[in-house]
């Protein structure tokens, strides 16, 4: 964490400086830049990301009267924890969460099929795909952390509770705020807000989706599950371990919860009739607990308290686009949808909240670029193009996983098939299979051989390095924040680093350089591009006195040097060898949402300008 660059900070350094006179107006204005509808995981992340831009008027409305007390989702995949790091609370939420390190699989005992036995254990992250853990924590706490980030941001943003979305109209007459939104306040009063952009994060029954003529298409699996968050006394030995339990009586997906005592069970209620019409949702919690005891035999579950209970039927549904632009139309979008408003599926793979937040992370920086006047509105077309494909992949994966979970033990040719599928597909639910194709914001892979393990289009997997200024071992990617900046990671050529020096001089002096072309005259050198260097030698061998100025930029009103942009080899990890960095060096370009956008040679003088000229508008 960096602070004091605007003067001594004696209080909480997480509270960002705000423009003079900034206060939060509890009265919803008549005109806003972005209106976010729905304060679930997608909505709060999007609002939090936009809250760092005080010049953009963003409001987050929700029909609830106040904060969520207990949430539906609880699984936090490693990719989401990486994202939390960008918002500064990965450590805090990890401390309070339950950490999944392995999963146990139970099946009928061959010697006594009426009883279950443990058949195998699987490591949760067998491939070491992230330094961050897989967590379980109440969705309400995730929302709390994002809300705190908003409150501490330069805009001091707060959610606007007690506003129910009614409908919207997009006016095509050239007005500045073309989206007219009708809301109903808690008092029953209707009011209208005019917005430049609207984002519907309002769930599976989304009113925003309905207003732009979209619908969820798909079907139901005709299978129901009860979900119980409970406190209980039990002799089941894996009550504090994630488990997939299959018995002659049905199946349970068991998830320990935060706090050391609470747990969640997804209890198999069996197939439902095609004409059930939702009647299964009336299943009582007592019936679900009795069913759980049947499945767990010979173990018993004495439930003492139920914190939350619900029944759902498995369904897989998806919209064909995530914005208001009809197929074939050539215009820029004004209204977007994200999260459950776009895609619904089972809860058992722990994907709903996680994928929803990545929808919002993808969209947030793009809205900020456009509304800050940096990028053309065409940039917003890439949101639906990128995220709709990811949602389809999610639907396909979840259909296979939920089908396997619903199978009876005798339907498996191999008793270990469920565990093998879990291990083999671990990268997908963890959030790391996303791979964006070439587009306006993803370059081609012509130079991928220069950095083989930083795949263009995939998330930037943070390597360990040593900070030269103080010798501290750190993760290179952990310094990146959700601030809308692009990261340029320069991996230096070998001694004497002549190509690096020439590239650095070009970056700061040449009018064609993206830093020169797109950084505004009144901004710090690193206001838009956070430029860092990694040297292929141990840190004592790097002389800060010879490091080019772009890697030691001046910051703040006092022009202080930033010493956290120069790195060298970690004593236990050679990033050049482990990530396949060419000895000639290269530059890895990373988007504000942590995805690799390009890999270019240090000798490049045309590729970076051409790429960023497609992302940014000419500087005005």
Q: Could you explain how this protein is built, in words?
A:
By secondary structure, this protein is α+β, with helices and mostly antiparallel strands. The chain is built from 14 helices and 27 strands. An eight-stranded mixed beta sheet has the order 6-5-13-14-15-12-16-18, with helices on both faces. Strands 1, 2, 8, 9, 10, 11 and 17 form a seven-stranded mixed beta sheet that branches. A seven-stranded mixed beta sheet has the order 20-19-25-22-21-26-27, with no helix packed on it. The longest helix is centred in the middle third of the chain and has 26 residues. The model has no long low-confidence stretch (mean pLDDT 92).
Question: Could you provide a short overview of the structure?
Answer:
With 620 residues, this protein is α+β, with helices and mostly antiparallel strands. 23% of the residues lie in helices and 28% in strands. An 8-stranded mixed sheet has the order 6-5-13-14-15-12-16-18, with helices on both faces.
Largest sheet: 8 strands, mixed
Oligomer: single chain
Radius of gyration using CA atoms only: 26 Å
Helix tally? 14
Give the strand line-up of the largest sheet. Answer: 6-5-13-14-15-12-16-18
Structural class: alpha+beta
- Helical residue percent? 10-25%
End-to-end separation in angstroms reads 32 Å
How many strands?
27
- Spans of at least 5 consecutive residues whose pLDDT stays below 50 are none
Mean pLDDT: 92
Q: Specify the overall morphology.
A: globular
Strand content: 25-35%
List keywords for this structure.
620 residues, alpha+beta, 23% helix
